[in-house]
Amino acid sequence: MDDNDSQEREHFQRIVRAFKAYRQHSHQRVAEREGYLKTLPPHHQALLESYKKHLALQRVCIDHNAEIIRLIIKDVDCMFENVHHQPSNCDEEYVNTQLGPDIEKVQSTIRQIVRDWSPCGEQERSQCYGPIIHQIDRLFPKDKMNRQDVKILVPGAGLGRLAYELAKRGFACQGNEFSLFMLFASNFVLNKCRGPNSLRVYPWVHTGSNTINNSDQLRPATFPDVDPSDLPPNSEFTMAAGDFLEIYTTEAAFECVATCFFIDCANNIVSFLETIYKILKPGGYWVNLGPLLYHFADQPGEPSIEPSYEEVKSIAEGIGFKITVEESGLKTAYTQNTLSMLKYEYQSVFFVACKPASRSG
Ligand SMILES: C[S@@+](CC[C@H](N)C(=O)[O-])C[C@H]1O[C@@H](n2cnc3c(N)ncnc32)[C@H](O)[C@@H]1O
Q1: Ligand 1: residues within 6 Å at CB?
Q2: Is residue 64 located within the same domain as residue 211?
Q3: Probe residue for ligand 1, chosen from 114, 118, 179 as the CB with the greatest number of ligand atoms within 8 Å
Q4: Which of 45, 66, 100 is the last residue of a domain?
C-alpha cells in the first residue's frame, strides 16, 4: 500500500467514524443541557418543565436520525469497487477529543437530504435547479436531438438531485463529488431508497436557536420525494467520486457542464473555469447558478483568492467563453430551515456561457 492509499484509507475511516459518532455526540449535547437544568434553582426548573420534556423528545429524534445514519453507512466499507475498507470503530475518547468539525458535516449531510430529496426542499430546488434545468431544456430541445447523445457533467453534485433530474429528461448525465459525506448519502438515497417518502429525518433537531415553537425544531422531513430508481429505461446516470480537477482531464468530452453552488469551492477559481472550458466540446455550454461564497476565504492554512463576479466574468471571457444569458439577484437558499427566525438568502448569479465552435466563433 503506498502513502496515497493509506491516506485515503485513513480519510475514509475518519468519515465513517464521524457518522458512527453522531448518536453519542448528539446525546451528549442534550445531556449537557439537562445537566445544566439540574443546577438551576428549583423555581426556574419548575418554569422550564416543558423545555425539559422538549429535550427528552430531542433524544427520540436523534435516535431516529442515528438509525438513518446507520443505514447510510451500512455497506460503505465495500462501496468503491476494488477497495475494501476495514470497519471503523468509534470510541468515547474519539467522540470527546477528535471529532471536531466532522460532526457538523454529518448534521449538514442530513440537511442536504432535505434540500435534494424531501418534499420540504421543493422550493429550494426550484429556485436553484429550476433555472439550470430550464436553460438546458431550451439549449438541447428533445424534439431536435437524441438527448442520450448529449453528455452533461454536474461537478460538485452534492446528493445528486440536479444530475438525476437531467438524466430523467433523457440526457447522459454524470454527477461528480469528492466529499465522502455526500457520496455515502447519495449512494444511500439513489441506490437503496425505494418508495416515495418512505423514510424521515429530523433535520432541525440540533438547532435550538431562533425557533418559534418547540414543534418546529422537532418536525420531520420525509424523503425521498420521488423514487430515485424511477428513471426512463436506458437512462444514463452515474456518480463519479473524486476531485473534479483531477479526474476530468480529457478535452472536449461533454456537451454541457452544469454547476450549482460550486465554482466558489475552489482555492483558485480560474483552474475550475479552465477545466470546464477544456472538457466542453466546441459549441458546448456551461450553465451556472450560485453565489460567490468562497469556501476557503476564511479557512486557516488554505490558500484562497476571491475575485468578484465582474472579475469571474472577465476571467471566463479571457479563457474563451462567450456569455449568452445572464441574470443576477436570483433569490436562492441553501439548506434553509424555512421556519427559523434567521434566514439566509443569496442573491445568486445565473449565466450560460458557450465555448465557441471555433476560436473566432
Ligand atoms: C455548496 S455544495 C453544492 C452541492 C450541490 N451542487 C447543491 O447545489 O446542493 C458544493 C459541493 O461541491 C463539492 N466539491 C467541492 N470541490 C470539489 C471538487 N474539487 N471536486 C468535486 N467536488 C467538489 C463539495 O463536496 C460540495 O458537496
Answers
A1: 115, 128, 155-158, 176-179, 182, 243-245, 260-262, 265
A2: no
A3: 179
A4: 100
Are 210 and 308 part of one and the same domain?
yes
Alpha-carbon distances, residue 144 vs 138, 140, 169 (angstroms) = 11, 8, 14
What is the spatial distance between Cα 141 and Cα 328, in angstroms, rounded to a whole number?
Answer: 25
Query: What's the pLDDT tens digit per position in 40-61?
Result: 999 999 999 999 999 999 999 9
The residue whose CA is least distant from atom 23 of ligand 1 is: 156
What is the C-alpha to C-alpha distance for residues 42 and 28, in angstroms, rounded to an integer?
Answer: 23
Atom of ligand 1 nearest to the CA of 156: 12
How many angstroms is it from 93 CA to the middle of ligand 1? Answer: 31
Q: Using CA positions, which residue lies closest to atom 16 of ligand 1?
A: 265
Cα 97 to Cα 328: distance, rounded to the nearest angstrom: 44
Q: Do 308 and 237 reside in the same domain of the chain?
A: yes
Number of Cα atoms under 13 Å in the Cβ half of residue 274:
8
pLDDT in tens, 275-315: 999 999 999 999 999 999 999 999 999 999 999 999 999 99
pTM: 0.95
Range of the domain at 288: 102-354
CATH number at residue 267: 3.40.50.150
CA of 176, closest atom in ligand 1:
21
